[in-house]
Amino acid sequence: MLAQFLIHPPIQLGPIGPELVLTGTAIVVLLGAAFNPRIGHSTLLLVSLLGLAGAALVSIGLWDWGGELTVLAGMVATDRFAVVARLILLGIAAMGLVYGYHYFRRSGEARAEFYPLVLFATAGMTLIAAAADLILVFLALEILSLSLYVLTGISARLSSVEGSMKYFLLGAFSSAFFLYGVAMAYGATGSTRLSAIAHALAGQTGSLGLALAAVAFLGIGFGFKVAAVPFHMWTPDVYQGAPTPVTAFMAAGTKVAAFAALIRVLETSFQPLTLDWTPLVWTIAAVTVVAGSLIAIAQTDIKRMLAYSSIAHAGFVLIALTAAGQDGISAALFYLLAYALMVLGAFGVVMLVSARGEGRTSLASYAGLYRRSRLLAGLLTLFLLSLAGIPPTAGFIAKVNVFRAAVAAGHWPLVLVGVLASVVAAFFYIRVMVLMYMQEPQDDAEPDRSPWPRVAVAVPAVLTLLFGVFPGIVLGVLDKAAILRW
Amino acid sequence: MIRLPLVLFFSAVLFSTGVYGVLARRNAVLVLMSIELMLNAVNVNLVAFSQFWHDITGQVFALFVIAVAAAEVGIGLAIVILIYRNRETINVDEVNLLKW
Q1: Count of domains forming chain A
Q2: What is the pLDDT of residues A126-169, one digit of tens each?
Q3: What are the backbone angles phi and psi of residue A70, rounded to the nearest 5°?
Q4: Residue A131 to residues A15, A56, A201: CA-CA distances in angstroms?
Q5: A319 within 8 A of A233, measured Cβ to Cβ
Q6: What are the φ/ψ torsions at residue A71 (nearest 5 degrees)?
Q7: Using CB atoms, which residue from B22, B61, B96 is nearest to A135?
Q8: For residues A462 and A395, what is the distance between their CA atoms, to the nearest angstrom?
Q9: Which of A195, A297, B30, B39 has an alpha carbon 20 to 30 Å from A60's alpha carbon atom?
Q10: What is the C-alpha separation between B88 and A331, in angstroms, rounded?
Q11: Is there a domain that residue A439 lies in?
Q12: Which residues of B touch A153 (CB under 8 A)?
């Protein structure tokens, strides 16, 4: 009995290199700002970006990992899926940092904590993408959630604090459900390791009832994190209340991270129960795309509208998940990449139109935007077209891939629902375009004309077009990454 | 020795009490306490299953849960204090600036 405790697993830190770099940078930035309050925020931004770049390099180095499938006692997976998810998340974090630097400087709320908090949240996000044990999934989920609760409330505005409280209460509530699911999975199989759960379920050595309860509770927990209907209530409040750069970062980052974890959990540990969870995912996907698209029509605030649109997009990724296997995972990864690009871009434009703080986020402020700033109107048009799924943008290719994978798996009624929901969704995206081009400006407020943030917003725009016209340049990589090794 | 189903039943009741508390209580601190109740129900489950499988993982996990719950309460209370300073209330129904 004692010998069992004395055997300790070999420690290979390589596969968690990106997280080590991220947390290391975060601590350096945190201490640097604490001990030298006069330090310039541009320095903090630069160090943080260097940390992200370092983490990205380490991740790329893991692409050809030849060692074991999981390291650190089966906690961390070393597959290419984790590498690709990490790279997407690191890119999102870089955009979030650049936005935040600009936004908080302009709104006069510059706080040094912003940079380390984003880095810690990113470390949680990248870790969850590589987590091969439910304990690590939970820990990473909490690392990213706790950082995001604070980030949401980082501004002194009341709506920011209120969003933070709602996010916290519902987030902690959903974490408890998630944990209950983990406990059930552990009870059913005697292990929290994803591969061991899969073996136990495949061999029927576990209790099926407990395993199904585990799927249901884990589904509720993940449903909250990815903002799927009916667990979406926090999304619009939090997206509207949080400072826009934080919204951009968390809208893109949380969704990618939570879906990466959901894909891994469903496709590895609960793969023997695929027939049981597919109807569940099917139903939630259908309800999510329809409800998200319909409620978005009624919104009068662009951040709330984009929040409901992000709910609908979560539904489309869930459609990809109903098509289990490599096709589905590859389609989901491309969708998440495209979604991250367009949501970062759209919130970037919202930040620039608002000019200072959160002053003008109502849809009415977008009337006649074309007269005031052709560039911003053009960029927003591109992102809205991509969100609506109109060629030649990445959003279109992403939707086609998802629908193709789902049809191939025989879920054509779900695809039909998805297509109809996209038609409904196109209405409110196009309504914003009509406002921008065909109406007179209601106020003569100037949008933000700083050059660098515009360059930053142009980056996702270029990539959206690039992946829309030449999707082949990433699809090959994503296909290779869509095989989960465990 | 206590039988497993009995423990599972107890933890289910504890968890449900927590869920009820979160949904019914309007005071943010009481909501926070109800969430703690749910987390402790999970801990009871984990330890019971750990005993059942003769496996240490569940107990280690319970320790992780306790640590994370402490961090969560820290942040949660900070947010509640921030709300109280702004609004002089911690009733979650009165904090309703954002709605659709």
Answers
A1: 1
A2: 999 999 999 999 999 999 999 999 999 998 888 899 899 999 99
A3: -130, 145
A4: 11, 18, 19
A5: no
A6: -120, 180
A7: B61
A8: 13
A9: A195
A10: 49
A11: yes
A12: 79, 82
Domain map (residue ranges) of chain B: 4-87
Q: Measured on CA atoms in the order A386, A128, A401, A424, is the torsion positive or negative?
A: negative
Q: Which domain holds residue A455?
A: 14-481
* Other residues' Cβ atoms within 10 Å of the Cβ of residue A156: 12
* Residue A5, domain member (yes or no): no
Query: Is A377 among the domain residues?
Result: yes
Alpha-carbon torsion (A407, A412, A416, A422), positive or negative: negative
d(CA A154, CA A246): 9
* Contact call for residues A364 and A439 (beta carbons, < 8 A): no
Instruction: Find how far residue A53's CA is from the centre of its chain.
Output: 19
Phi, psi of A407, rounded to the nearest 5 degrees: -65, -40
Radius of gyration, CA atoms only, chain B: 17
Cβ atoms of A221 and A164 within 8 Å: the answer is no
Note whether A178 and A220 are within 8 A (CB). Answer: yes
B3-30 pLDDT, tens per residue? 889 999 999 999 999 999 999 988 889 9
Mutation pick from A128, A149, A155, A179 vs chain B, by most beta carbons of B within 10 Å, is: A179
Tell me which residue in B38, B75, B79 faces A176 most closely, judged by beta carbons. B38
Which residues does chain A have within 8 Å of residue B28's beta carbon, measured at their own beta carbons? 165, 169
A442-463 per-position pLDDT tens digit: 776 777 788 888 899 999 999 9
Return the CATH architecture of domain B4-87: Orthogonal Bundle (1.10)
Indicate whether A419 belongs to any domain.
yes
Round the CA-based radius of gyration of chain A to a whole number and report it: 22
